[in-house]
Amino acid sequence: MSQKNKKKTNSGSVLLSVLLLTAVILCLILSVLLIQTRKNQNRSQIQNIIESESESESITESESESESITESESETLPAGMVSDMTLSFYHVFLHVSDGAVMPVVRMSPDDAVDTSAVWSSSDLNIASVDQDGRIIPVSAGECTINVFSFSNPDVSAQISVKIYPDEEPLPDPQTISCSGSPRDDIQVIGGITYVNGIMIVNKTYPLPESYNPQGMTPETAQAFSELCRTASEEAELYLFSHSDFRSYQTQVYVYNDYANQYGSDSADTFSARAGYSEHQSGLCIDVNWPGDAFNDTPEAVWLEQNCARFGFIIRFPREKEAFTGYKYESWHIRYVGQEIAQEIMQNGLCLEEYLHVDSKYP
Ligand SMILES: [Zn+2]
């Protein structure tokens, strides 16, 4: 090979290596650029993910906001919607052959638009219930009567029902206990309502048409006899029974007579409708002369001051019409037993206040 040729070959290989080097550098630059773009892409992807996540979080937040709106809505119900319900009793004990019993349902607020109730029985073989809430015994056993507000089904109540065979005695109101709320103390036994074992008869709690003790109960008669004797001995006052036991049928005539004379609205303030008169219980007496003329007489004053010693209360005291549903009657006394009578009279209560019940026609 000549020297010239050698030089040519040398310069050619230098050129080649320069070209190769340039290619390598270009490759390096390209790959660096590629990596950079990738990184940028990843970054923006991550950014997107973060953004979308935080968006979904804010959606969850707005969802929970709407939940809290629903909650606050349920706390403040629309005007006129039923928010609560109470029944006049929650426990019923009946014989198979007993007549129907019907609780009074009170829906609140008072201005609720639709206060209708929907009734059902857990076991129609034990007791049925009609659309007005009449509970009708069918056969021996236990079941539950359910009721809910038609306009707001969240508002509901239950009555426990126990039906006894006719030959088996009903539970004794003095000893029976249904533990729970104070409302559990109100029990309907054979159609008669007892609160803590005390019979209650008023505009909310009627007696069955068939209830007929045929006169004053023996305890009532004996206590009243002692009261009259003591009034005579201690104060030389003559007290006597003007009227005591009245049957359901008698009360039909008494009330209708007053209603015809004065109108039923007026008659309702001083005379009871049949079934709602305490006189049917055999536990009360109209002393001497029923009427406002008896008020503040020495006999009326003595009666008020001493009746509790013998187990009686002034059943319709002054200024208690809102509780009892009746005007003041100084002459009408009711037997409840000495201990309870003294508690009621000493504290200036009426029976409705003492038992925490109301007295309003359904
Ligand atoms: Zn009376």
What features would you describe in this structure?
It is a single chain. The protein has 8 helices and 15 strands. With 362 residues, the chain is α+β, with helices and mostly antiparallel strands. The protein folds into 2 domains: 84-199, Immunoglobulin-like (Sandwich); 218-355, 2-Layer Sandwich (Muramoyl-pentapeptide Carboxypeptidase, domain 2), CATH 3.30.1380.10. The strands form 4 sheets. Strands 4-7-8-2-9-10-11 form a 7-stranded mixed sheet, with no helix packed on it. Strands 12-13-15-14 form a 4-stranded antiparallel sheet. The longest helix is centred in the first third of the chain and has 73 residues, at 3-75. The termini are far apart. The model is unreliable at 42-73 (pLDDT under 50). Residues 279, 286, 332 line the site of zinc ion.
Mean pLDDT across all amino acids: 85
The CATH C-level class name of the largest domain: Alpha Beta
What is the CA-atom radius of gyration, in angstroms?
43 Å
Hetero groups bound?
zinc ion
Overall 3D geometry?
elongated
Number of strands: 15
Protein structure class: alpha+beta
Please report the number of helical segments.
Answer: 8
Sequence stretches where pLDDT stays below 50 over 5 or more residues = 42-73
Query: How many strands, what sense, and barrel or not for the largest sheet?
Result: 7 strands, mixed
Helical amount among residues, as a percent range?
25-40%
Number of structural domains: 2
- Tell me what the CATH architecture of the largest domain is: 2-Layer Sandwich
Instruction: Name the helix and strand elements from N-terminus to C-terminus, one letter apiece.
Output: HEEEEEEEEEEEHEHHEHEHEHH
What is the strand content? 15-25%
**CATH fold type of the largest domain:** Muramoyl-pentapeptide Carboxypeptidase, domain 2
